[in-house]
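Title: Prediction job returns without error message
Component: structure pipeline
Severity: low
Priority: P3
Assignee: unassigned

Description:
Job completed but the reporter wants confirmation the result is attached to the right record. Sequence as submitted:
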Amino acid sequence: MTALPGRPRSVEPPARAPDGLPLPGRFAHLHPDDGACLMEAAALLASARFTDSPAGTHPALAALARVVNDSVGDGARYALWPLAADLADAHPSGRDYAPLLVGTVVDAARLVRPASRPLARYSRACRRRAARLSYVSAGGAAARIADLLWWRGPGRRHLEHAVRVLCAAPDAERRLSGLLRQAVAQAREDPDDRAPGREVPCNR
């Protein structure tokens, strides 16, 4: 995902990084000695591999975590650092997860820009796709390809547009941080709580 402009550096950043992890920083890094973004820290905790796309994190959630990491200031980034442990193992298996997550971000952006027609259209599209997939099994290769095409196409565009709107809000850091905390908590819910048959709102 294309990184968005970050927030200004904090006047008084925390004195040190959390124990056992590199210094938190924006964007991707070549080596832990140079620091790490939130997803790189999650990857180190999960497998000791240094990547910002660990296998244990759903790609849509990882994309949200990366852009939030790159868009908040130093203080907010340090405050989010404990989420790395939960992000290391956050990969819901339901096919409706990605449109639910993207829909949540879109609906959060609609609170900032309620008159936006594109956001309203994206929200409806996410709601329809999530509802259609909530009763569908994981499926085979064709289903995986269809989900990948949606995520790399409209799903990703919807997410990026919504995050740009959120970044323009006066309280962007609070909104983005809260959104990521909510998303991580929901990704790690008991699978039975996400069973087919539940109501599928986009602002989950």
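Comment from assignee: result matches the submitted record. The two ends are 23 Å apart (CA to CA).
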